[in-house]
Design brief:
Blueprint: E1 4-12, E2 17-26, E3 31-35, H1 42-49, E4 58-66, E5 69-70, H2 76-82, E6 87-90, H3 104-116, H4 121-134, H5 140-143, H6 153-165, E7 171-175, H7 183-200, E8 203-207, H8 211-217, E9 220-225, E10 228-234, H9 235-240, H10 245-252, H11 292-296, E11 302-305, E12 308-310, H12 322-329
Parallel strand pairs: 3-8, 3-9, 6-7, 7-8
Antiparallel strand pairs: 1-2, 1-4, 4-5, 9-10, 10-12, 11-12
């Protein structure tokens, strides 16, 4: 059974639909990579799962099942009880989730008092030190009394992870958690998340633009374009044999880190703005293989084998691509 299962999710503003019929699921001990260009609806989808869509945005259709229970049917109080305890979220910039006016120790210990009812200050601090040590914060006893600005970006992200794993959540949503970090720290953070997952069986949704990270850390991938998922399946299969032209274009734009170099491909044009989406396939204006039927209707999502799906009238041939060799070589 999936820890999180999203079915036909629609998210709208007053004037436009931002997410349109999105469906995906993630099981315990597995990581789903959610990829696509900026503005494709990845972050809005994740915030909507938590019941925290941005101001002026609302979920209008679909089901969000967590352990089989529909989160849309829960009251704000019930959702608040789940957030932090059962479902955690790591943001791109930890400074947006850490209070700059409170010490790191105060923020962690207050969470234990609020979530677990832990009344002993000594016990709360001991638990906080244990957590900071778990995420490899050096000298945690002294850093407990430091403020967020006294930590590096990587250390702040470790603190954010510590706060999110404190209550052993069953689902962890990481919205581009390594974007602002250098390459070495980026890998350390994701290695840490993988260790936590192995120990606690956590299901993870990882939002990222970095396809190399998806290949290295994710089990499954869902590719979003203009508010819809156009292709999804196991990472190895999707990257080795991309069936949607958008997926193939994204892989072709990734530079090779090993082997012979080649000219990167370019996806012409820009994604459509919300509210300006024309009839037909949303990728058709940028697709080199678009045909007349692509302009008249949006393709239904079809299952192409047991674990793969694609929304395309004319999928790419089922054959290994040159980009597949790239992703395999860098995994």
């Amino acid at each position: 059974m999936s820890v999180l299962s999203v079915h036909d999710l629609a998210v709208e503003t007053e004037h436009a639909r931002l997410v349109d019929g999105v469906s995906f699921s993630v099981k315990a001990r597995r990581t789903l990579g959610l990829v696509g260009e900026s503005g494709s609806g990845k972050s809005v989808t994740c915030l909507s799962v938590l019941g925290l869509p941005p101001r002026g945005v609302r979920v209008t259709e679909g089901h969000i099942l967590f352990d089989g229970d529909d989160l849309r049917a829960k009251t704000p109080a019930e959702l608040n009880a789940l957030r932090g305890r059962e479902i955690g979220m790591i943001l791109q910039d930890p400074m947006t989730s850490l209070n700059p006016l409170l010490t790191v120790g105060r923020q962690i210990t207050e969470m234990f008092r609020y979530r677990d009812g832990m009344t002993s200050r000594k016990e709360r601090e001991a638990r906080a030190i244990e957590l900071l040590r778990r995420v490899r914060i050096p000298a945690p006893e002294s850093r407990l009394h430091s403020y967020p600005h006294q930590f590096s970006g990587g250390m702040r992200q470790r603190v954010a992870i510590a706060m999110n794993i404190a209550c052993n959540p069953r689902l962890l949503i990481a919205d581009e958690p390594t974007t602002a970090l250098d390459v070495t720290v980026r890998l350390q953070i994701l290695d840490l998340l993988r260790e936590v997952q192995a120990e606690r069986g956590t299901a993870i949704v990882l939002v990222t633009h970095d396809l190399h990270l998806v290949r290295r850390y994710c089990d499954d991938v869902a590719v979003m374009y203009a508010g819809r998922i156009v292709e999804q399946g196991p990472v190895g299969d999707v990257f080795a044999r991309p069936r949607h032209p958008y997926t193939k274009g994204l892989l072709g734009a990734v530079p090779r880190l090993r082997g012979p170099q080649r000219r990167l491909t370019v996806i012409p044009g820009q994604p459509p703005l919300p509210g300006s989406i024309a009839q037909g396939c949303r990728f058709a204006p940028r697709c080199p293989g678009a045909r007349a039927d692509c302009m008249s209707a949006y393709p239904a999502t079809r299952t192409i084998d047991t674990h793969r799906s694609v929304a395309c009238f004319h999928p790419e041939p089922d054959e290994r691509t040159a980009e597949a060799l790239l992703m395999t070589a860098t995994s």
